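Hi support team,

I've been running sequence recovery on a batch of backbones for a student project. Most finish fine, but this one hangs at about 90% for roughly twenty minutes before it completes. I'm not sure whether the input is malformed or the queue is just slow. I've pasted the structure tokens below so you can try to reproduce it. Let me know if you need the job ID as well.

Thanks,
M.K.
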């Protein structure tokens, strides 16, 4: 069976990029469920996606569940195709990639849900900050869209973290290794939070740099001395002990920089040191960068460690601020697109459903950037909600609503697999209300 012919041509063109990832029988289901996730107006379960695609009367619901639980296809392969699509559409040919890495917990109940257990959840309410659910380590490409002042993260790869399996750092290193393997000509700069450091990062490809927060009690060492004469034994792998990060910061000299972080101008004091952090990166040279607000009374506000030895310190601080975009992506994907609402339980289904939802989130933004952006989008939003007097840029909600309207309008179009004529139903307020609900 061919994909739903009422899918708009612009959206179907994006989905066609993934044809190589699926068989003849699974590709139509991929197109239908991805489209249904976006068009669905109710709970985004697997059957909800089928209803959103308008295929609930044509296909049995077991076919949709079987697509996630037993069909032969690889979610990593789909993510790597998406990565190439994002790079081709939104990134300059010779520009390096900025990849944000983080994990997010999706709350799940039920004793038979694969991979669900009690774990730390920073988004949990209350003081305990723990939830029972599944955790996915995600890697997303950070892009800068011409119509948005902020950085945007497009998730491309996600891997389920299991309690008795590899650690989160090892999973993140494996995901970045996959990206570097299919993009050998690209320099990749990874930004991650304080949890992502450790021995698995010592074997990253040479084209990858890693920047993350460093603990206050991490011990730093001088670079190893050059071998002198015919000294017997192995050469030293590290120099003298410098002390802990917090101790060294008290003796540093600072330079003042004026930077734009999180859409705000900030005046900061920055200090840097080239050294070894033997506990995580072994004998690999790293730079530690201390950041302090100009009016701060603390010794330092932020300490970063990076394997990038060439980029200026102020540019590294700006690059690290782009890490926050992956937190925004998690929030929007969960609350606006409904990613994580599926109730799968089997190992393959759990490992595939949420990552495919994150891929759909990225595809919405790619579609909007290539085919949907117009000043009329913001103007129309302000017409519906006149209290947003300062709104000047589209949000993800605007992108999602526009694509949803386009999908719904295509179902009224008589042209097979063509971009629908929105003017034909432009006066149908019931349709627009349905698309926003």
């Amino acid at each position: 069976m061919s994909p739903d012919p009422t899918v708009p041509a612009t959206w179907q063109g994006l989905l066609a990029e993934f044809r190589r990832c699926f068989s003849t029988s699974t590709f139509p289901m991929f197109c239908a469920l991805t489209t249904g996730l976006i068009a669905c107006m109710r709970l985004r379960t697997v059957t909800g996606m089928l209803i959103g695609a308008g295929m609930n009367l044509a296909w049995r619901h077991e076919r949709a569940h079987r697509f996630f639980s037993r069909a032969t296809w690889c979610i990593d392969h789909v993510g790597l195709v998406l990565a190439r699509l994002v790079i081709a559409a939104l990134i300059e040919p010779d520009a390096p990639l900025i990849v944000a890495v983080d994990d997010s917990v999706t709350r799940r109940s039920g004793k038979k849900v694969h991979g669900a257990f009690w774990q730390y959840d920073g988004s949990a309410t209350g003081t305990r900050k723990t939830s029972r659910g599944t955790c996915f380590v995600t890697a997303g490409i950070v892009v800068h869209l011409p119509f948005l002042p902020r950085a945007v993260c497009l998730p491309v790869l996600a891997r389920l973290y299991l309690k008795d399996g590899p650690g989160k750092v090892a999973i993140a290193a494996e995901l970045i290794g996959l990206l570097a393997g299919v993009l050998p000509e690209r320099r990749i700069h990874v930004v991650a939070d304080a949890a992502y450091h450790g021995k698995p990062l010592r074997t990253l490809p040479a084209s990858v740099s890693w920047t993350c927060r460093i603990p206050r009690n991490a011990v730093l060492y001088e670079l190893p001395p050059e071998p002198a004469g015919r000294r017997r034994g192995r050469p030293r792998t590290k120099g003298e002990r410098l002390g802990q990060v917090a101790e060294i910061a008290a003796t540093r000299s600072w330079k003042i920089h004026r930077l734009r972080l999180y859409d705000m101008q900030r005046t900061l004091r920055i200090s840097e040191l080239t050294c070894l952090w033997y506990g995580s990166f072994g004998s690999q040279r790293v730079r530690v960068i201390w950041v302090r607000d100009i009016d701060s009374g603390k010794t330092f506000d932020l300490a970063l460690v990076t394997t990038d030895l060439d980029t200026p310190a102020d540019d590294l601080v700006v690059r690290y601020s782009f890490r926050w975009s992956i937190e925004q992506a998690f929030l929007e994907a969960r609350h606006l697109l409904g990613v994580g609402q599926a109730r799968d339980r089997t190992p393959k289904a759990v490992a595939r459903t949420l990552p495919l939802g994150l891929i759909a989130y990225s595809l919405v933004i790619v579609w909007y950037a290539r085919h949907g952006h117009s000043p009329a989008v913001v103007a129309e939003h302000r017409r519906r909600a006149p209290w947003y007097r300062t709104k000047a840029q589209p949000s993800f909600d605007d992108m999602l609503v526009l694509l949803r309207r386009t999908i719904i309008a295509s179902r009224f179009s008589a042209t097979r697999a063509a971009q629908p004529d929105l003017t034909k139903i432009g006066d149908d307020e019931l349709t627009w209300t349905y698309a926003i609900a």
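--
Follow-up from support: It reproduced on our side and the slowdown came from queue contention, not your input. The first strand starts at residue 97 and ends at 107. No action needed from you.
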